[in-house]
Amino acid sequence: MERECGKCVAVVAVVTEPRFAQRYRDYLEKQTLLDRQHRAVKMPDGAVALPVLGETVPEQHLRELRNRVAPGSTCMLMQLPDPVPSKKAQRCSPAQRLCLAVSRWAKGRGVTWSAELEADLPRSWQRHGNLLLLSEDCFQAKQWKNLEPELWETVASALGVQRLAKRGRVSPDGTRTPTVTLLLGNHGWVEHVDNGIRYRFDVTQCMFSFGNISEKLRVASLSCAGEVLVDLYAGIGYFTLPFLVHAGAAFVHACEWNPHAVVALRNNLEINGVADRCQVHFGDNRKLKLSNIADRVNLGLIPSSEEGWPVACQVLRQDAGGTLHIHQNVESFPGENLQPPGSSEVDKEHWPYPQQTSTNQWKNGGTRDSRRKMLSPATKPEWQRWAESAETRIATLLQQVHGKPWKTQILHIQSVKSYAPHVDHVVLDLECRPCPLVD
């Protein structure tokens, strides 16, 4: 039986006098023609319109209604342009509403509905105002192509939006440009608000990850008053803006090489009122001319920001150092019998400097071993192993860049989200300080 859920598209109704409405309803229901997803409507002239499934009712059923079900009744068809959902329909999920609307619409155009087509419908999506961004794994069947562009109008109507886009895989061009096709609408510009910060961007040209909200909130809660920050992978301002708007950074140098993201970034700095405290550096951050300037460096690139580590070391203040926020996708393999960090010969080979530098002892006598005990119980061993390896490499780079030993300390390992099965997006907060000169 065809059904539609919600106020999606116009439906056809059988109209008759009120005294015959119940007889009509019983007959239509027995013939599986009654649309139970929409309410019967009382017309201005007193007649009752009973919504039915499909785009018409076969003449044989109309004759049956007039001549046998309710002799002498008036029986006619009309279209309800704005059908009222039944109480049952109002309880449907958006995915169910979409399925029912599209299946009904497709059947009305002669498409044989199948489980394969239903499985090809989206179950989730990103909503940006009146634009819906569909995932790449939906509407892949060849049958859909013959139904465009009206198909997209039906989908948009069912989900209550005016524009549709569908994303593909992220382009491996170094700028993480999304492959997004605009299906319905004239442009892809949208606005999204996170934690009071406005982000405007073109979904067909720039990435936006809802999964990073926890890290954006954490960054916003940091106390960065008076600090100069370098954001090596600024994008449209995902972290640049929280550092400026909420964390109180004095100034941010934002690096980005995607020209479309730079346009959005400059615009977002303006609309959030912080453009006077930020300089945008367009181009490859590996060629950045800045040095000896940063109290804090953000390296918000996944799967790895390692190519930016030398630049991060270069821009840290030589006199006082600072903090690095290093993003990474770390693989985890549950069930494996992993050795504790630092216990293997491989780990030992990563410590090329003298004990006071490689173990990073502080005034309180803390070492890596003692810091390991202070980490959250939720910290996975793989995260800790990666963090300690990164700490060692950063210490090496700092000595190479500045020509003197530095001490480093793991302050925090933060989980952002699960990126894929057994792959976690984490952030390492690493404190880096120059060692005092010894006379």
Descriptive terms for the model:
TYW2_N; elongated; 439 residues; TRM5/TYW2-like_N; S-adenosyl-L-methionine; single chain
What this model shows, in words?
- This protein is α/β, with parallel strands linked by helices.
- It has helices at about 20-30, 60-70, 85-90, 95-105, 115-120, 150-160, 215-220, 240-245, 260-270, 310-315, 345-350, 355-360, 370-375, 380-400, and strands at about 10-15, 40, 50, 75-80, 125-130, 130-135, 165-170, 180-185, 190-195, 195-200, 230, 250-255, 280, 295-300, 320-330, 405-420, 425-435.
- The strands form four sheets. It has a seven-stranded mixed beta sheet, sandwiched between helices. It has a four-stranded antiparallel beta sheet with strand order 2-3-1-4, with helices on one face.
- Strand 7 (about 165-170) and strand 8 (about 180-185) form a beta hairpin.
- Helix 4 packs antiparallel against helix 6 (about 150-160).
- The longest helix is centred in the C-terminal third of the chain and has 22 residues, at about 380-400.
- The protein is elongated.
- This is tRNA wybutosine-synthesizing protein 2 homolog.
Describe the strand arrangement of the main beta sheet, using strand numbers.
Answer: 13-12-11-14-15-17-16
General form: elongated
Helix content: 25-40%
The overall pLDDT average reads: 84
Could you describe the largest sheet, including whether it forms a barrel? 7 strands, mixed
Indicate the radius of gyration in whole angstroms: 31 Å
Structural class: alpha/beta
- Give the termini distance in whole angstroms: 89 Å
Number of helical regions: 14
Quaternary structure classification? single chain
- Tell me how many strands there are: 17
The low-confidence runs, each spanning 5 or more residues with pLDDT under 50, are 1-8, 336-374
Strand content: 15-25%
Keywords: S-adenosyl-L-methionine, Transferase, tRNA processing
InterPro entries: MeTrfase_TRM5/TYW2, SAM-dependent_MTases_sf, TRM5-TYW2-like_MTfase, TRM5/TYW2-like_N, TYW2_N
Pfam families: TRM5-TYW2_MTfase, TYW2_N, TYW2_N_2
Domain SAM-dependent methyltransferase TRM5/TYW2-type: 125-434
